[in-house]
Amino acid sequence: MSLAAEPFGALPDGSPVLRYTLSRPGGLTLRVLTYGGIVQSLQVPDTRGQVANVVLGFASLGGYLAATDAYFGALVGRFANRIAGGRFSLDDKSYVVDVNAAGNCLHGGRTGFDKRLWRAEAFSDHELRLSLTSADGDQGFPGRLSVEVTYRLLESGVRIGYRASTDAPTVVNLTNHTYFNLAGEGSGSVETHTLVIDADQFTPVGCALIPTGEVALVAGTPLDLRTETAIGARVRDPHRQLLAARGYDHNYVLRGTGFRRSARLADPATGRVVEVLTDQPGLQVYSANFLDGSHVGTGGRAYRQGDGLALETQHFPDSPNHPAFPSTVLRPGQLFASSTIWQFHTE
Ligand code: GAL
Question: 0.90 exceeded by the pTM?
């Protein structure tokens, strides 16, 4: 096993960005940037031992700096997903946070954690520890937040561990925004991949993808992915929820609690399978509806709508404005701790 760092360009202010490579002989190779904590590449063998990079991204830093709204592979915070109107109240105080998406706060605001330079430390030969401090008032959020994310290479998977603490009451929702394409990034649509989501319910959205507050059953809708279903099978159903999101872009209410499986994505052509395990209550399933062919990916091919699938383990969108949703409040003295595993195998 090995862990090594190399330069990966510099930010406009001259700060150097590093790329860390974690690899296991005969197994996975994971490449992570100090910019945005981005998973830049993840090489995974198929049934015949052929290796491919199964995550969307770019070959150089410039690509990430230009694609500000796609969040390829990035760590997302302080608050993944949307906060309606960029407003919420906490302990009877009102807060206004940065609005960067149709009048709402998306993924922590304009300068979210995906656009920050993280401190990096090789914790062992298979574990990279990233950290940052988000100042009180960063993008409008209260409290000085200390965040630590570790990427650990497993036998045949990746574990992402999140920890956060604050010096004043605040809200936190952290995730990673990797888009998977198990046939290899740049190989086209993932519509023939099959998907299972371990959820009986989802949180319907209204305009601008803000949850209505309802929790609805997936049964009888094209959002029912409880049994293995090709992504393309129902993505064109003229269902209100799919039309509002241009495809799948919904938070699923995961079944059960504790660390458990949330999703299984498989590519019948290569036999690659990834299972996503998490302790979080929700999973945002996003079928890359906004990719429009304007970004040239790592391997030199443009990414179009549906060329990847993001499985974002998280709390429900807009939780600070929905007291009935699991709480995202973090108080001084509490530790936010969560983990997600991407477990790969072949079939
Ligand atoms: C997803 C979100 C989408 C879109 C995307 C970034 O997490 O659910 O609506 O904003 O990020 O392009």
Answer: yes
